[in-house]
Amino acid sequence: MYSFMGGGLFCAGVGNILLIVSTATDYWIQYRHSNNYMHQGLWRYCMPGKCFTHNDSIAHLDATRALMILSLLACFMGIIIGIMAFIHYSSFDRFDKTFAAGILFFISCFFVLLAMAVYTGVTINYYGKRYGNWRFSWSYIIGWVSVVLTFFSGIFYMCAYRMHECPRNSNSH
C-alpha cells in the first residue's frame, strides 16, 4: 500500500511541477512570421527580443488558462491529502484520504486533458490554416506529460485504496 502511495505522490509531485512550468512558460507554439521566429504561451507572445501580454480576451486561451489553474489546484490538494493519508493523519475518521487523493488526481488529469484538447483543437484549426511553418513547443509537450503523470498518480492512489479496503472488508464478514 505504501509503495503505491509513494509512487502516487512522486508522480503527482512531478506532475504538479510540470503543470506549473507548462502554465507559466511562453513556449506552447513556435512559428515563423515575416522571417522571424516567434513563440507564444498562455499569457504572452514573444517576438525576437520582446514579449507582450495577450491583451485580447481570446476564448480558447482563457479556457486553457482556467482549466490549467483548476488542474493545478486539484493536484495540489490531492498532494496535501495524499501526504495526510501517507502519515496517517486522522482528523476525519469517516473520510478515506487515499480515495479522496486518487479522485483529486483524476480530476486534475481531466482538467489538464480538457485544457490540452481545447488548445490543440483551436491551434491546429487556426495556425494550420494561416501559417505553414509552425509547431507545438516544449511547454505544450510538458502539459501532455503532466496529463500522464496525474493519471498514474490517480491509478496509484486507487490501487492503494483497494489494498487498504480489501483487508478491511474481509474482516467484517
TrEMBL record:
A cellular component annotation (GO) from this entry: plasma membrane
Keyword entries, A-Z: Membrane, Transmembrane, Transmembrane helix
Domain of life: Eukaryota
Lineage: Eukaryota, Metazoa, Chordata, Craniata, Vertebrata
Pfam family, any one: PMP22_Claudin
Subcellular location: Membrane
The keyword Coiled coil belongs to this UniProt entry's keyword annotation: no
Entry keyword annotation includes Transmembrane: yes
GO molecular function, one term: structural constituent of eye lens
InterPro entries: LMIP, PMP-22/EMP/MP20-like, PMP22/EMP/MP20/Claudin, PMP22_EMP_MP20
Protein known as: Lens intrinsic membrane protein 2.1
Membrane topology, as annotated: Multi-pass membrane protein
